[in-house]
């Protein structure tokens, strides 16, 4: 199915909507970065051997550490076998929690096999939560039927929101898993502006999750948190619309919007951020020299495509051919969309064969895509960048702006070296 429709609101750019076969990872992939973020949480996937293989290969780097995720493999069984499956799950959880008293938050993560779909993981989580004192047990789905890879983070945070304590105090909450180095930088910048009532969701430890309520204003650090935002709104918190914190421009807009919501004046904001912004702009000069004038094509994968394209075209001089994203959240991307180059095609959803045809016809210099498409495109002589790297690497904030640009410059450097 293919149709051109104008975007809602004041942005009238046509959007190519596609609803065909798609090539993306499922939401289980989010566990790979979420388990590093919440340091006393454990993710128990209830799934098949395929799920276990996916996690093992995606998170191969964890092999030397005490793992904080595992897969409880549920083999094929009929309805009568489901009662046994519940008991088996309880036994597995009991064994795990006895062996690992450091676990304070346990996520039961659903997947796609039909046996898992039949199992009521929400009730299982409630039952286990009552049974194990001192360990919060929650559930969410990382199934490939319902989620693309970054939506796993959204589903995980959405499971946390109803559990957060209540407060009506005025505070700023930054929502989305960020590298600690980024959080620390932003804490310092906000402290320099006098903003100390600042919290992050998720927190690094289960017991430190922020309270939320009427006085909460929140910034979304990631564009893929639609459900989390909806639930925060339902708790009385208010979203602050702005750019996402990619590049110097995005970071300044993002931090400024948060500062304004806390009553910080323009002078104080500029005083606190000017040096860091100038450093970021200067550091971008190097990668910009390699990227300027290069044509880039985004396949839909991480939902980071729109802010990423805005950064690469406005701050690195690239030309966007197509900006594909799995889902376009009009309200959350309202500040981003008018900054995209008018000539680029904006597409939502995927029909992979059609998109490959468009890509091959356009012959871009660089394609951002999932792992499954990278090899066939490289074989056609097209340079690629794996979009999954963008969520594994700290890319938000001033000090990371040049690193982010370098991620895109590196494939060109590699290609040049191979040519030599
Ligand atoms: Fe595959 Fe579904 Fe398991 Fe993801 S959740 S690894 S898509 S079976």
UniProtKB/TrEMBL annotation:
Annotated Pfam families: Oxidored_nitro
GO biological process, one term: photosynthesis, dark reaction
Reaction catalyzed: chlorophyllide a + oxidized 2[4Fe-4S]-[ferredoxin] + 2 ADP + 2 phosphate = protochlorophyllide a + reduced 2[4Fe-4S]-[ferredoxin] + 2 ATP + 2 H2O
InterPro entries xref list: LIPOR_BchN/ChlN, Nase/OxRdtase_comp1, Protochl_reductN
Described function: Component of the dark-operative protochlorophyllide reductase (DPOR) that uses Mg-ATP and reduced ferredoxin to reduce ring D of protochlorophyllide (Pchlide) to form chlorophyllide a (Chlide). This reaction is light-independent. The NB-protein (BchN-BchB) is the catalytic component of the complex.
E.C. no: 1.3.7.7
Keywords tagged on the record: 4Fe-4S, ATP-binding, Bacteriochlorophyll biosynthesis, Chlorophyll biosynthesis, Iron, Iron-sulfur, Metal-binding, Nucleotide-binding, Oxidoreductase, Photosynthesis
Residue ranges of domain Nitrogenase/oxidoreductase component in the record: 26-407
Cofactor(s) needed for function: [4Fe-4S] cluster
Family according to the record: Belongs to the BchN/ChlN family.
Catalytic EC class: oxidoreductase
The protein's annotated pathway: Porphyrin-containing compound metabolism; bacteriochlorophyll biosynthesis (light-independent)
List of residues binding [4Fe-4S] cluster: 26, 51, 112
A GO molecular-function descriptor: metal ion binding
Biological source species: Roseococcus suduntuyensis
Annotated cofactor note: Binds 1 [4Fe-4S] cluster per heterodimer. The cluster is bound at the heterodimer interface by residues from both subunits.
Subunit structure: Protochlorophyllide reductase is composed of three subunits; BchL, BchN and BchB. Forms a heterotetramer of two BchB and two BchN subunits.
Name of the protein described by the UniProt record: Light-independent protochlorophyllide reductase subunit N
Domain of life: Bacteria
SUPFAM superfamilies associated with the record: Helical backbone' metal receptor
